[in-house]
Write a structure and sequence with these properties.
This protein is mainly alpha-helical. It has one domain. It contains six helices and two strands; from the N terminus they run ααβαααβα. The longest helix has 30 residues.
Length: about 140
């Protein structure tokens, strides 16, 4: 229930615009064939930015139990390119937003969500967003 309430407040006070921005970025990246791997990552971030409460980040190979191109060396290369081109400044933006939220006690939960978004903006290729119980189950299965 608290996750739902947090997501509603997040959505009403800017989360929808943040998600739309990421969705637009993904659409722009998808226009070129070269940008497709990053477009998928931008769409993952858009979904996470829409409703971040009750969700966490997890590597796709841990979640599915199957390796894929995004969790291989190619994914590492994709993340390196992403970090240089866009990741670091997007991360800084989310960290500054988090600090702004942390100024007030009531804004602390939203600050934590910005820090989770900052983490995925650094290296989104090969990452998935999952509900917290699903991610915990995947980690237990992995051992």
């Amino acid at each position: 229930m608290l996750s739902f309430l947090g997501n509603v407040i997040w959505f009403l006070f800017g989360g929808v615009f943040l998600a739309l921005g990421w969705f637009l970025a993904g659409c722009l990246m998808a226009i070129s064939v070269v940008g497709l791997p990053w477009a998928r990552s931008a769409f993952v971030i858009a979904g996470f930015a829409l409703t971040p409460f009750g969700k966490t980040l997890i590597r796709r190979d841990v979640l599915t139990g199957q390796p894929d191109i995004g969790t291989s060396g190619w994914g590492f290369l994709g993340n390196a390119v992403w970090f240089v081109v866009a990741g670091w400044w997007l991360c800084v933006g989310h960290i500054l937003s988090a600090l702004g939220c942390f100024v007030t006690i009531i804004g602390i939960p939203w600050g934590w969500q910005h820090l989770k978004l900052a983490a995925i903006t650094l290296a989104p290729v090969g990452m998935a967003v999952a509900d917290i119980p699903v991610a915990e189950g995947a980690y237990r299965r992995q051992g």
